[in-house]
Design goal:
The chain is an alpha+beta fold. The chain has one domain: PAS domain (Beta-Lactamase). It is 39% helix and 26% strand. A five-stranded antiparallel β-sheet has the order 2-1-5-4-3. The two termini are 33 Å apart.
């Protein structure tokens, strides 16, 4: 397994960029996130994958040039006519075949995790089992 194949094991979207911001490699999760095959992602400018934002373009440029080690921000991903809110982490790489790595996380997924944690804190695990007992019974019939 080469170093980029390991990224395919992740549920998180990973883009590896060249010095001018072009996508050199994308993992399997990137295909789902952007609704494009890796072949179509490879070679395109990473900034084009997101809704127009100077902050996003600036963060990608800075990471690719090595001006900053890491930059985190929120952005929107283009998905046909729709957009999805995401969290971006742009990381400058040194001594690698790539200039930068971008990690893209879907904010909806993060919101669901936060909501579940909040419910556990407020109600406790036993109360949540009672609240979702019908859902659990329904799902158990397919196990």
């Amino acid at each position: 397994m080469n170093s980029t194949e390991a990224f395919d094991l992740l549920a998180t979207t990973i883009l590896l960029l060249g010095s001018s911001g072009e996508v050199i490699s994308a993992n399997a999760a990137a295909e789902d996130m952007f609704g494009r095959s890796r072949r179509h992602l490879t070679g395109c400018q990473a900034v084009e994958l997101f809704d127009a934002s100077e902050a996003t373009a600036h963060a990608i440029r800075q990471a690719c040039s090595g001006e900053v080690a890491e930059c985190r921000l929120f952005a929107s991903v283009k998905r046909g006519q729709d957009s999805a809110e995401v969290s971006l982490t742009c990381i400058a790489l040194s001594h690698q075949a790539w200039a930068a790595l971008i990690e893209v996380k879907d904010m909806h997924q993060r919101t669901m995790v936060d909501r579940t944690r909040r419910l556990v804190d407020e109600h406790g695990v036993a109360d949540l089992r009672d609240m979702y007992s019908n859902d659990v019974r329904f799902l158990e019939q397919f196990a």
